[in-house]
């Protein structure tokens, strides 16, 4: 089986994108996604994105995402920006009334993606959620404290230290903590531990946020199923939302990740999160499976 693909990235968060409308990928398995995502023996990527026909009326495309460990993921904001640039560049939006704006179906709902004139992409990520059971997260018996509009959950790590985390759903689960120096934060060790903490039965994305000022943060994200990535769109959104709810940030917020910068705006509870940032095509290729 020979498949055409495009390698892309959004602020360093990199993807393999497949046109699954014109190519049949139904025979591929989790082992195949792992092999494709392997940086030593495959193409290499944080996630693999599929452009598919929608199954919900009114949607232009279906957007399916695999982590590089072969697992399905509910949402990926950086990937969404690459998604809309891909379908536009490939001519897949020519039948639409507005070729630069598409509505996509994801595992947990829908999103609207817009390609801007300057080449950046704005994604309506939908309204965030804060109900622990919906992430899901098991919080019974955990110490909590209120900070402004947020509820912080105190989680004990294996070495005995405790961390206050905010819980945010961006269609996928996030646990966000504030640190004094994000570059020195134990992202690889604590991120890996919190990802599989018993309170998260389906694992979690772990965010580490340093507040530079009310309109600027630095972040590092340990992504569920992928490890630390150079950027994470939903992680950036979750961090900004958590910071606004804690009363330490004011919208809009510039988010500096290791791979680049994003702009996040959020008007408050019940309102959608708007994320803008780059989407870059690296190369097109073909691979035999």
From TrEMBL:
It is found in: Cytoplasm. Substrate binds at residues 13, 47, 67, 77-78, 172, 205, 223-224, 233-234. Keywords: Amino-acid biosynthesis, Cytoplasm, Isomerase, Lysine biosynthesis. SUPFAM superfamilies: Diaminopimelate epimerase-like (SSF54506). One of its GO terms (cellular component) is cytosol. The keyword Transport does not apply. GO terms for molecular function: diaminopimelate epimerase activity. Coiled coil: none annotated. Its EC number is 5.1.1.7. The active site is at 76 (proton donor), 76, 232 (proton acceptor). Gene3D superfamilies: Diaminopimelate Epimerase, Chain A, domain 1. This is Diaminopimelate epimerase. It comes from Ephemeroptericola cinctiostellae. The gene is dapF.
